[in-house]
C-alpha cells in the first residue's frame, strides 16, 4: 500500500486494515487517530501509514522478536543445527555452555527441575540489560526491574548475594548511578555459584546426556 498513488485505493486499503485488524493492532491513540482520519479524507495523508508502520516495527523489534528468540519453536530449530561436537564442549567449558542459547535452555530446564533457576534467569536478564544504551533511562528502568525481580528481599526469584554486595548495587540504583557495569560484581558471584555445583550436576545429568544422544 505504501506504493499506491491513487487516494481512493489508499483510503479503502486503510479502511480494510482497520476493519480487519483494528481491534488486534497495538497502536498508540495518535497513530490510530491518523489512520481513522485518513479513511475520511479525500486525499489521505501518507504519513498516517508511516506512523503506524514505525510503531508496529518497533513493537516487533522490541517485544515479539525477543519473545520469538526465546520460544520453544526457535530453540528447537537451533537445536537441529547444533553439532554434537559443540555440545560436548560444554563438558569442559562453563563459558561455552552459557554462551550458547540451546545450552542455556537445557541448563535452565535442569535448574528449574531442581528449583534453582533464579540464578540463571538473573544472569540472562543482566546480559539483556547490558545491551541497552549505556546510562539511558531504559537502562535505569531495567535495573529497577531486575532489582525488584531478583534482588529484593523476599522476591519470588530472589538471588542470594552477600549483604554488602546487595547494598552496593541497591545504592547505585537508588541514586540513579547506573551504567552497564552496575551488576558486574553480582553476576560474577552468581556465575561462581552456578559453576560450583549446578553446572557439574547438569553435565552428569540425564537431561544433558539425552540431548547429546539426539545430536549428530
* Poorly predicted runs: none
Helix and strand succession?
HHHHHHHHHHHHH
Helix content: over 70%
Distance between the termini: 46 Å
- Number of separate strands: 0
Q: What form results from the Cα inertia axes? A: flat
Average residue-wise pLDDT: 91
Gyration radius over CA: 23 Å
Biggest sheet record: none
Which structural category fits the helices and strands? mainly alpha
Number of helices: 13
Organism: Meloidogyne incognita
Protein name: RGS domain-containing protein
Domain RGS: 33-78, 93-212
InterPro entries: RGS, RGS_sf, RGS_subdomain_2
What keyword list fits this structure?
216 residues; 13 helices; mainly alpha
Question: Which SSEs are present, and which pair or pack?
Answer:
Blueprint lengths: L6 H15 L7 H12 L5 H24 L2 H10 L2 H5 L5 H5 L2 H13 L4 H13 L6 H15 L11 H12 L9 H13 L1 H6 L2 H9 L2
Organism: Meloidogyne incognita (Southern root-knot nematode worm)
Protein name: RGS domain-containing protein
Amino acid at each position: 500500500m505504501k506504493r499506491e498513488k491513487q487516494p481512493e485505493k489508499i483510503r479503502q486499503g486503510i479502511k480494510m486494515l482497520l476493519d480487519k485488524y483494528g481491534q488486534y493492532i497495538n497502536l498508540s491513540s495518535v497513530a490510530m487517530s491518523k489512520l481513522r482520519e485518513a479513511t475520511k479524507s479525500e486525499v489521505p495523508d501518507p504519513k498516517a501509514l508511516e506512523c503506524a508502520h514505525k510503531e508496529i516495527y518497533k513493537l516487533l523489534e522490541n517485544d515479539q522478536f525477543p519473545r520469538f528468540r526465546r520460544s520453544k519453536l526457535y530453540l528447537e530449530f537451533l537445536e537441529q543445527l547444533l553439532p554434537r561436537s559443540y555440545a560436548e564442549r560444554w563438558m569442559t567449558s562453563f563459558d561455552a555452555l552459557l554462551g550458547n542459547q540451546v545450552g542455556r535452555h537445557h541448563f535452565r530446564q535442569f535448574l528449574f527441575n531442581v528449583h534453582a533457576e533464579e540464578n540463571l534467569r538473573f544472569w540472562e536478564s543482566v546480559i539483556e540489560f547490558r545491551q541497552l544504551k549505556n546510562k539511558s533511562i531504559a537502562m535505569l528502568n531495567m535495573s529497577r526491574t531486575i532489582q525488584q525481580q531478583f534482588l529484593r528481599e523476599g522476591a519470588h526469584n530472589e538471588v542470594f548475594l552477600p549483604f554488602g554486595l546487595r547494598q552496593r548495587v541497591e545504592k547505585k540504583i537508588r541514586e540513579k548511578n547506573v551504567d552497564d557495569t552496575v551488576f558486574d560484581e553480582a553476576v560474577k558471584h552468581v556465575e561462581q555459584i552456578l559453576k560450583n555445583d549446578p553446572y557439574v550436576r547438569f553435565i552428569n545429568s540425564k537431561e544433558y546426556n539425552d540431548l547429546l544422544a539426539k545430536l549428530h
